[in-house]
């Protein structure tokens, strides 16, 4: 990193600590560091006027954290991946959708295309929650018939779970230990009368759910970007896996137990039907 970039990074991180300045700092970062595929305006946002694109590093989301303590940066999920997973579910009219680490709310907006009892998002960064709230208002004006989006600032591991069946979404944002705490809590909350689906895009910590009693695979797919989406993410496809716990007896989709292999240590995985589920568990992810 050049001295100029270091100085700019320091200035942006300092600005992000000031009240009301985190969103302007995000925008400034996007203009000054346009080298990430996510920085291009995503076609998903054009029709609604929303802002779910961009790439925001962890040091800007939570100024003051050290490199070793950083979690994942913000980058929007692939809409087609979310749609493929939600289309695999049974009737969700009585289910609450919760995006853990919702960022700017892109997955919540995709979920609003489907029938859910409630659509919630939890995000630690106040700056991202502010953007998600603005996006929620835009969706409500454009589509008053859809379920209202409710983003909130909070800790994904401790968020209050609504009563009734749940669909949990996570676009790889958490380290192994946090995924484990979340999954254990969800498994304990599931019962024959309360079904819980865990939708995990880019499931880097897939082995945590595969090893947890109570969760079983429901669906798995490698989903290609649409022609419009190409160039707005690191690759042209992404993997999504869905687990379920509790609820009535159901038959999983064909291929749900396909294996996954790590493509970028700690950052990316892809579906690999030639591997058995649980094979090749990485040890590099913290």
Task: Give an overview in words.
By secondary structure, this protein is α/β, with parallel strands linked by helices. It has 2 domains: 3-74, no CATH class; 76-276, 3-Layer(aba) Sandwich (Rossmann fold), CATH 3.40.50.150. It has 9 helices and 11 strands. The protein has helices spanning 3-16, 22-32, 43-46, 58-61, 79-87, 106-111, 126-142, 176-189, 206-210; strands spanning 55-56, 74-75, 96-100, 118-123, 149-153, 166-171, 196-201, 216-224, 237-245, 258-264, 268-276. Strands 5-4-3-6-7-9-8 form a 7-stranded mixed beta sheet. Helix 6 links the parallel strand 3 and strand 4 (118-123). The longest helix is centred in the middle third of the chain and has 17 residues, at 126-142. The chain is globular.
Key traits:
Rossmann fold; 286 residues; two-stranded antiparallel sheet; seven-stranded mixed sheet; disordered C terminus; 29% helix; alpha/beta; 2 domains
If you consult CATH, what is the topology of the largest domain? Rossmann fold
Tell the overall outline: globular
Note the main sheet. 7 strands, mixed
- Average pLDDT works out at 83
- What is the terminal separation in angstroms? 25 Å
Total DSSP E strands: 11
How many separate domains make up the residues? Answer: 2
Which residue ranges are poorly predicted, with pLDDT under 50 across at least 5 consecutive positions? Answer: 63-70, 282-286
Strand order of the largest sheet: 5-4-3-6-7-9-8
CATH secondary-structure class of the largest domain: Alpha Beta
Strand content: 15-25%
- Binned, the helix content reads 25-40%
Write down the Rg. Answer: 18 Å
The class by helix and strand makeup works out as alpha/beta
CATH architecture of the largest domain: 3-Layer(aba) Sandwich
- Determine the number of helices (DSSP H or I, runs of at least 4 residues): 9
Order of SSEs = HHHEHEHEHEHEEHEHEEEE
CATH superfamily label of the largest domain: Vaccinia Virus protein VP39
Protein name: Class I SAM-dependent methyltransferase
GO molecular function: methyltransferase activity
Keywords: Methyltransferase, Transferase
């Amino acid at each position: 990193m050049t001295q100029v970039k270091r100085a700019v990074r320091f200035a942006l991180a300092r600005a992000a600590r000031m009240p009301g300045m985190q969103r302007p700092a995000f925008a400034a970062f996007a203009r000054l560091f346009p080298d990430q595929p996510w920085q291009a305006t995503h076609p998903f946002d054009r029709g609604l006027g929303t802002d779910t694109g961009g790439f925001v590093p962890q040091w800007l989301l939570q100024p003051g954290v050290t490199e070793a303590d950083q979690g994942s940066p913000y980058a929007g999920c692939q809409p087609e991946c979310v749609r493929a997973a939600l289309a695999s579910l049974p009737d969700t009219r009585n289910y609450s959708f919760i995006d853990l680490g919702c960022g700017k709310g892109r997955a919540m907006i995709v979920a609003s295309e489907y029938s859910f009892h409630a659509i919630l998002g939890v995000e630690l960064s106040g700056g991202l929650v502010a953007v998600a709230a603005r996006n929620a208002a835009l969706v409500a004006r454009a589509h008053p018939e859809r379920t209202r989006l409710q983003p909130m600032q909070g800790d994904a591991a401790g968020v209050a779970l609504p009563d009734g069946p749940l669909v949990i979404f996570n676009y790889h944002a958490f380290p192994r230990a946090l995924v484990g705490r979340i999954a254990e809590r969800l498994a304990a909350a599931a019962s024959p009368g309360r079904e819980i689906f865990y939708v995990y895009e880019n499931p880097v910590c897939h082995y945590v759910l595969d090893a947890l009693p109570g969760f079983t695979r429901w669906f798995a797919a490698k989903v290609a970007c649409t022609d419009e989406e190409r160039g707005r993410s690191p690759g042209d496809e992404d993997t999504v896996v869905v687990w379920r716990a509790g609820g009535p007896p159901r038959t999983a989709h064909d291929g749900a137990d396909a294996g996954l292999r790590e493509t970028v240590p700690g950052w990316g995985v892809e579906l690999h039907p030639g591997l058995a589920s649980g094979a090749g568990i990485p040890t590099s992810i913290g």
